[in-house]
Design goal:
The protein has helices at about 1-20, 25-40, 45-55, 60-75, 80-90, 95-110, 115-135, 135-150, 155-165, 170-175, 180-205, 220-225, 230-245, 250-265, 270-300, 305-315, 325-335, 340-360, 365-370, 385-395, 400-425. The chain is mainly alpha-helical. It has a domain at about 60-155 and about 180-210 and about 220-290. It is globular and about 70 Å long.
């Protein structure tokens, strides 16, 4: 019980520190769990927990660093300029069309089931357009997060984890939720249109001069000249296709892509050094945050705080309320993403809740359905325990606190709406 309490206090302290903006996310992610581990009596083992957590996401960190360099180099080379010009011709300069268009792009890219790929493709593609028109970057991060979060498919991480943990087929989990997901997607596009309309009104009152914000990170002639456009597109598609196929580790795909992109577009040593230097601050900052996040996750798992919190939740459930486990879980599933990482919940907590619900005659699939309505579906793009969250804020060039404050209410609303729909359709019993 003491360890569970310490875990809850650690999470709450971390979220408070980040959202208050009084300390940087790096400081909060390192200091808060270290203090908690020391207070828990784990002493020098704390360092081993941190290393274990960092090692578990080393590949993600490598992918992120080289993804920043790759997309930054391609943007500097002008690859996105024709795309932005074409997009403007198709949908105009109306945010009420651009923002839902962003949601559609993210939704289509997320068909591969990877949140990281979704953000790596969607955000760099449309961020220059948002900057060009003066649209709030928080909206880009929010809309991409909603589209990826609501799109829980049979091959996405949460569904596969729930299937493996409860020995239920992925199709049995997904098929009953199709109607629920359609309601969630309607909410995503409706909200996207509303956010776009709100931006139109704001920009009409405070207009941004068209073309005032340059596409790319350098205003020099070499950096802005769109040379080798078709070849750059082919390279980008090959890198992304290779990464999605899973045949090559994403970090390696982006590493090789970065080398090719630099050599092709900036053949001189000086040009390559300038491009690396231009994007190094963003890469180093987000890599540092990911290292800190890895150490935080390592401490939470290594100390057993995550397991203790799960056991405490189950042990405090009243016997007469066991039948309400699916409803309660679905209602709080999205916020629970802030407390548990995907593996800890789906492989550690979900089986325990499923066994407890079984004593009341509820099938395991019902508890899994409840979890999928928010736990690391709508919740994963804002959780401090998932690398994808830092990918969103890094690519959107906003702070973690800005992203969480702006996006969490929309993701929670989507989760609650889908829960209500599931109750009406009797997928979640009362």
């Amino acid at each position: 019980m003491l360890l569970a309490t310490l875990g809850v206090l650690t999470i709450l302290a971390l979220m408070t520190a980040i959202l208050s903006k009084r300390v940087s996310p790096i400081v909060a992610l390192v200091v808060v769990p270290v203090i908690a581990s020391l207070l828990g009596g784990f002493g020098m083992r704390t360092g081993k927990f941190m290393i274990s957590g960092i090692e578990s996401i080393a590949g993600v960190i490598g992918m992120f660093v080289f993804a920043i360099l790759f997309f930054g180099t391609m943007t500097d080379a002008g690859m996105l300029k024709p795309f932005i010009a074409w997009l403007l011709r198709i949908i105009g300069r109306k945010p009420s069309r651009i923002v839902p268009g962003t949601a559609l792009l993210a939704l289509l890219v997320h068909l591969d089931g990877s949140g990281a790929v979704t953000f790596l493709v969607t955000i760099p593609a449309v961020l220059p357009l948002y900057d060009e028109l003066g649209i709030d970057r928080r909206i880009l991060a929010c809309v991409a997060s909603m589209a990826a979060g609501v799109n829980f498919l049979p091959w996405t991480g949460p569904t596969l984890r729930a299937s493996a943990a409860l020995h239920v087929s992925a199709s049995a989990l997904f098929t009953p939720l199709i109607a629920v997901q359609l309601v969630g997607l309607a909410f995503v596009f409706g909200t996207s249109w509303w956010l776009g309309r709100r931006e139109e009104r704001r920009l009409s009152e405070h207009p941004v001069r068209a073309g005032a914000l340059l596409i790319g990170s350098d205003s020099g002639a070499e950096a802005s000249r769109p040379r080798f456009f078709l070849l750059n597109v082919v390279i980008t598609l090959v890198v992304l296709g290779t990464m999605i196929s899973g045949r090559i580790d994403p970090a390696i795909a982006f590493m090789l892509g970065t080398v090719i992109a630099l050599t092709l577009n900036f053949p001189s040593l000086k040009g390559q050094q300038e491009r690396i230097t231009a994007h190094a601050p963003a890469a180093i900052l987000m890599a540092s945050i990911l290292f800190a996040a890895g150490s935080f996750t390592g401490i939470m798992k290594g100390t057993g705080m995550v397991t203790a919190m799960a056991s405490a939740v189950v042990s405090h459930l009243p016997q007469h309320g066991i039948r309400l486990i699916p409803l309660c879980l679905a209602t709080v599933s999205m916020p629970l993403s802030l407390f548990f990482d995907p593996d800890s919940f789906y492989f550690g907590v979900l089986p325990v809740l499923s066994n407890a619900a079984a004593s009341a005659g509820l099938p395991a699939v019902t508890v899994a359905h409840a979890a999928l309505l928010g736990l690391h579906t709508t919740g994963f793009p804002v959780s401090p325990l998932t690398p994808a969250t830092y990918l969103v804020v890094g690519l959107s060039e906003i702070s973690l606190a800005q992203h969480q404050r702006f996006t969490i209410p929309f993701l929670f609303a989507a989760s609650l709406l889908m829960t209500l729909t599931a109750v009406i359709l009797r997928i979640i019993p009362l």
